[in-house]
Amino acid sequence: MRGLINHGTYCSINSVVQVLYGTSELRDLIRLVDDHDHRSPNRVALKLKRLIYDMTKGNPSPCDPSLLVDAMTSYRGAPFDVQEDSDVVFKCIINALADDCGIAKRIGSLWDIENEDRVRCLRCNTVQSTLNKSNTITVLIGAHLPTELQDYIKMYTDNTFTTSDYHCTHCHTGTQIEITSKVLTLPQVVCMRIERVRNIGRDTADIVKTGTRCAFPETLDLKYIMKEPEATVDTVYKLYAVLAHSGSHYCGHYTAYVRDDDIWYLADDSHVRVCSWEDVKSTYEAGSMLCNGVAYMLMYHKEHR
After folding, report:
1. What is the pLDDT of residues 109-132, one digit of tens each?
2. How far apart are the first and last CA of the chain?
3. Phi and psi at residue 266, in whole multiples of 5°?
4. C-alpha–C-alpha distance, residues 28 and 65, integer Å
5. What pLDDT score was predicted for residue 42?
6. Three-state SS string across the chain, please?
7. What percent of the chain is modeled with pLDDT above 70?
8. pLDDT single digits (tens) 180-236
């Protein structure tokens, strides 16, 4: 692995790129992107291809991600001159690939999860179902929620939400609804986003980061979030990357832990070193001062049995 140069606000981008580099399917497919395909509506796929090609070389010096960042800026129509949340960076790159054509679009769909959302009126019991796609699974943190990820996933089967501000178009009354969400299909790679930032007030000054413990295993079974958990599909996934953040919501630093051939590496901008599973587990929680790197995003790869 090679490091990436940080030009001041790039640590979240660098960490996401290292996580994408650790995704074997992306690394294999990105080299097939056509450099001269004039149908491409943006340049993100091409610049990512060239950056990952540079990262595969044996040169020990860090690579410069600036051209990729320029392409990302053009795609979203806003500069990356301040540090962005890792989730924003991930979605910018993946959505740009999905909005492209050919191989790039195929890469952008690697994380696609198909969900069925069901809304039930608690007055007349009418149920409406809608299908949608997402590229992340959100993991909530709360006082009454499990702190072990596998236990949280098991609880997912009973996860429902209600709201009182709803007008049912069937019984034509203001009422409460029950919302449930189930996964219909799982992709080859799954991104789990831990919801560590929340707003405890009404403005941006009330946004806080929580370092509460969220223990994630190396092997995770996602059958509990499936609409048909007994279906004969592969639902066991193995962890291969963790994106962590130290500091507060307003000022901090991103790093990435990436597993390659069962060896874990810590990528900290231009510096990359071998680390251990114990080092990765240190990101379960941040401590009282939020000084330790705490996991924000987890990448799991499907295990074929």
Report:
1. 999 999 988 888 888 999 988 998
2. 28
3. -105, 120
4. 19
5. 92
6. CCCECCCCCCHHHHHHHHHHHCCHHHHHHHCCCCCCCCCCCCCHHHHHHHHHHHHCCCCCCCECCHHHHHHHHHHHCCCCCCCCCHHHHHHHHHHHHHCCCHHHHHHHCCCCEEEEEEEEECCCCCEEEEEEEECCEEECCCCCCCCEHHHHHHHHHHCEEEEEEEECCCCCCEEEEEEEEEEEECCCEEEEEECCEEECCCCHHHEEECCCCCECCCEEECHHHECCCCCCCCCEEEEEEEEEEEECCCCEEEEEEEEECCEEEEEECCEEEEECHHHHHHHHCCCCCCCCCEEEEEEEEECCC
7. 89
8. 888 888 999 999 999 887 655 555 545 666 778 899 999 999 988 888 766 667 899
197, two tokens:
């930032």
Which of these ranges, 15-24, 97-106, 194-203, 207-216, has the smallest mean pLDDT?
194-203
